Amino acid sequence: MTRSALLALGLLGLVSSATLAQTPQRIRGTVVSLDGAVLHVKPNGGGAEAAITLGPQLKVSEVLPSSLKEVKPGSFVGTAAETQPDGTLVAKEVHVFPEAMRGTGEGHYAFDLGPKSTMTNGTIGQEVTGAAGDTLTVKYKGGEKAIKVPADVPVVTFGPGDKTDLTPGAHVIVFAQAGTDGGLSASRIAVGKDGLVPPM
Description:
- It is built from 1 helix and 13 strands, in the order H-E-E-E-E-E-E-E-E-E-E-E-E-E.
- It has one helix at residues 3-22; strands spanning 24-35, 38-43, 50-65, 76-83, 89-91, 94-96, 107-110, 117-130, 133-140, 143-150, 155-161, 171-178, 184-192.
């Protein structure tokens, strides 16, 4: 193999390793313990306990109960939804962003709550109330989606939190990254307040 070919393979390996290291993943589960800068989480649905190193700039957000009454034209929201056979989007949850978080994750993209799940973050343009629930029009840069929201769908919002919220039994979503050595680290966590299970 030529020197240039070996160099190309080496560069490809570095790019692949860098890509792997930057690939985010969501770990949904229950806090087992917090040992210094290492958070131990039992994933929902079983599986091995995850040990996650918390970064020095860790940001913790509390997930708090809310309602569709807080959703008005101009509100910035996110909603995980499931795509129906006819293409209709039906919400699995709605989260209302406080004004300071406007613009977070804006857009429409595939999500990890199932093979047909999506996430849509954007600004409410119109809300239509019907007997089976509401339909929200969510506008984002480059498009908009109409999403049906059944009456029993959980609605939450976010508030500021800190590491003291990461107590055993707390329900969390850890936004983690895997390093080249396979270790997990995180700089952002959402934790349910007073036993709430984050629905997103």
